[in-house]
Structure formats: C-alpha cells, structure tokens
Amino acid sequence: MTYLSGFLLAVPTANKEAYRKMAEEAWPMFRDNGALSMVEGWGDDVPDGKINSLNSAVMRTQEETTMFSWITWPDRKTCDDGHQKMMASMEGQPMPEMPFDGKRMIFGGFEMLLGDATVRAGYVDGTVLPVPTAMRDAYKAASIKMAELFQEYGAITVVDGWGADLPEGKVNDFHTAVLRKPDESVVFSWINWKDKAARDAGWEKIMADPRMHEFGPASAGADMSRMIYGSFVPLVNV
User: Fold this and answer.
1) What is the CATH T-level fold of the domain 3-237, as seen in this structure?
2) Domain ranges of the chain
3) Is pTM, for the whole model, over 0.90?
4) pLDDT higher than threshold 90 for residue 63
C-alpha cells in the first residue's frame, strides 16, 4: 500500500532558493532508496485560524513562509528501510547547514486512504485535521464522495493519508498541530488542481453545491474548528 512521509515546516522567505536547491539535491538519495516522488509546497495562501493553523503549527514568524510537503513511497517497509539506509550512510558525516529551523519541522508517516499521490502537483490545497479513530471507515467513505465532487469541479486528484507513525517532537508535532485528543487520529490530505485559476473556479462551484454539506469531514465526526489548511505552489516537484 502506498505510504506517505508528510512534512510541515517554516522557511525564511529570503532562503527560498537555498531551500529549493537543498531539496533538489536531496531527491536522488530518496529516489535511490525507493521513493516514488517528492513535492515541496511553498505557501501561497495560508490563513491564520481562530484556534490553530498551519502557521501556528510550525511557529512561523513574519519573515518565514509555511510549507506543506510530502514524499511518496510504494509501502511503509520501503520507507522505513530507506530511512535506515540513509541514516547509516550519513553516520559520522558533518551535518550540512540547513536553510531553515529543523527543530520546528513536523514530520510523520501516513497510510493511504484514497487517491494517487504520484500525480504531478499543479496547485495544492493542503489540509491536516483530527478525526476520531473509531470513525476511520466513515471518514474514508465521506472522503471518497468528497473527492468525486472536487473532481467534478476540476480537481485533478484528492489524496488522504491516515496517520500511522507520528512521533512526538520536542517542540511541535502533528499531534500539537491539530490539538489531537487521545481518541483521535491525524489525517494529512491535499487537493491537487491544474493551477490557481482552476482552484478558484472550482471552489466557487463547490461551496454553492449542497452536497458539500452532506458528506464533508464533519459527517464522520471530524472537528472542523481544529482543521488547519492552506494553498501551496510546488517549489520542488519530482
């Protein structure tokens, strides 16, 4: 089953090109250890929320841009083995200077619920939200219907990943990002559009469609007040 490594981070806006260069140079290492694709999404429209947001999750400063990124693997074993091999290859090597604060980077592994994560990204609406663990099947059923609706109005694909390996961080993590409760899991999801114009036109129609309220995430018990989201332009897309 396809597996996702999902990332949230804040990068100094002035370091955009330095980050792009670092990610592009790192890709061959991931590819050679089994990864299928990698997308680094640069924040284009990331709103602050009343309770939480992608910005608050990564503790973004005014001089930084929030990113929503992922690496796709054929399965969890390939991901785990690949990371072990990469860590072993770097053992004893000096760590390069990073163009961002790695202590605030959020990362984790997600099992695929639906969608094709290898489809080339155009313009991305990224979302992270808490869903009651017991409602996984209901959430998946609702997500399938939602995906059909979005694709009807122009989305290329919709991807949902269910949290499978979400480590607790010393500073922040996926759990704190959505203020997760003990009986909840975390979903990492995105809608892929051809471009921003297609996205804007699609959302206008979707919000006017009554089906949007019939089988959204809330129908599966998701607390939408703690859902965090934003729109992103691919900075690296391989």
Assistant:
1) Alpha-Beta Plaits (3.30.70)
2) 3-237
3) yes
4) yes
